[in-house]
Amino acid sequence: MNDKKFKxxxxxxQMKMLVELIALNPELMSGKFTAxxxxxxxxxxxEEIACKLNALPGADKSWDKWKTHGKIQKIRQKPKLQLSxxxxxxxxxxxxxxxxNRSAI
Length: 105
Fold this sequence. Notes:
- It is a single chain.
- Helix content is 72%, strand content 0%.
- With 105 residues, the chain is mainly α.
- It has one domain.
- Helix 3 packs across helix 4.
- The mean pLDDT is 77.
């Protein structure tokens, strides 16, 4: 029997690697297929990602389960990214106002 203890939830290490692997292949998350990037190519990429993630301690999932988990993580991260972008824009505006005020003095 397999020595790996069954876990349904991925570990932090698996999640970190999932995010890194998806970042290397952004077309996987776009959902758009082209002549070069077909469903077959996408499936092969997800199967490769699943092998790498299943080799780590933690959850053991099929390629399509990892794909679903990756999309859920992307959705969860989106509001955080939007918030951080809004904060960055606001900080940039404050910085520009401060520079203007200094130059006016």
